[in-house]
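quick one before i forget lol
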Amino acid sequence: MLTVGIICAMNKEIAYIKEKFNATLIEEKHSIYEAFYEGKRIIACVSGIGKVNSAVATQRLIFNFSVDYIINVGIAGGLNKSLSVLDMVIAEETVYHDFHPLELLEQENGLGTYIFKCDNRLITLAEKACEKMKESGKIKNFTKGRILSGDCFVESDEVSRRLRDEMKGECVEMEGASISQTCILNEVPFLVLRSISDFADNGAEMSYDTFAVKAAEQAGEVLCEIINGL
């Protein structure tokens, strides 16, 4: 049976997924849930915020549940000024924005790069899911590109501008790249998917508080469409 691992950083990001799949809590200590849907086994967890928490959770799902895919779903701060709050970003690749110099990762066994490429099949399924939701009016817009990760909540115009202009990020969050790196080292296909909750600028905190739950639900809906396609 195909097993899909789903990683969310926060409870608000997994709430829709638990309800949609009628998931059962199977490991309280690690916030791991199990569900069966359309002939697939789903193992979903709340990793906690940040790179270490998300990497540990990823390794746990791979070792303990032999997942065939890992999909990281949640919310992010937008960097691309053509996006709006509640638009979707499909990662083609993830990169750390707080690892310096990035080129050191190219020397790591099993990596050889600091740009972590998502699985092409999962990207295609995510595109189809977003197109379907756009046609039905559930989302206004989506894009593909680079998602940046780092252990900080970005709420500065200056930092946001640097991440956009120098690092070419579509959005910024705190887990995607560490999940990606762990998957690459374990040879597990992966995808990072984000809904925009704020714009990582001086007004980020206010926007986040207003839109975080809705953005998380929207990302969960796209995830469901992806799983339908697997």
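fyi The chain is about 40% helix and 30% strand.
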